[in-house]
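Write out this protein's structure.
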Amino acid sequence: MECDKMSNDQFSPKKINEILQKTVDTIEDGKSEVFEIAENARKQCHDLQQELKEMKEKASHLIKEVDHLELLERQSRRKLVLVSKEFSKYAEEDIKEAYEKANAIQIHLILKRQEEKDLIKRRSDLEMRLKSAYEGLQRAENLAFKIGIALDFLSGNLQDISHTLEDMQEKQFLGRRIIRVQEEERHRVAREIHDGPAQSLANVVIKAEICEKLMDIDLEKSREEIQNLKKILRDGIKDIRKIIYNLRPMSLDDIGLIPTLKRYVETFEEETQINMILNILSEDPIKDSIKNLSIFRIIQEALNNVRKHARATNINIKIEITQTDIRLHVQDNGIGFDTENIKVPQNYEGGFGLLNMKERVGLLDGKINIKSKINQGTKLMIYISNEVEEGF
């Protein structure tokens, strides 16, 4: 009995609160140290960039010097050949001067070539150090993001600890899911920026350098390259707008949910060649902005599932928004699946597709019903309250 009492005291909400508070304090200290590491790494990257820039300028100047010395060396060798052939025509002083000048140029050239070789090696070493510094900075920033998310989650929930251990475990499970989703979103955005606008900007720099070189050689070719440059910039702007739209469609705030959905459905139909039917049965205003965005995301996820897996030719969407509730139906004529064989691992913490939609609907205290049969398509029926929830 005494052991049971000690165990209950050990896992009481008050004790858990104390443990969490200590954890938050420790994470706060760690967060400051990680931010300091990241800041030092950022400064190191900046300093190395400046040093590399100066070294490249010095290398460029040195290459020009070597080229000039090579020209002088060739001229001096030709002079020596001439003096050797017509030895009798030149005074002894002139012959001596020609030999000494050629020798001095050769020595200077050898020294400059060695200096150039050393500079190239130093530049390569510096580039490796810069790459390593960037990798360290990226790791520090990623760690800072993760610590920040964990800290925000823990700090925001300290006052809301439930009175039972089961409820506490449920909140921790939810917290891990939220952190995972946020990290996945950050990785997705980073990947899209790296593969899209970042690549486009790198191409712009290369094309600009090509245009600069062609200006004095082939004006017509340089005009063609400028046209290519414009196309890359337009594509880059298009990629940036797409990333912004995926983060949050601005039209949701400007023109509302239904017009935004109509635009999205039209674009989806153009991209996939799937016949789309969108029926708006009623459209009372949605009182909760979070639900407004979530409904758009749910339909977006449903259509992406059809695009990736269903092999459908028709999709029918019905939306009914009343003062009290929101009903969504999404039906396709695709290959379907066996709903009995959908298995979720015991330690599953979220995922994509149908499971992702279930998470979204569950977080809004809604209900989702999935009906599907092999070769008979799939139908999603979603119900969400149109009341404003506390805390949103």
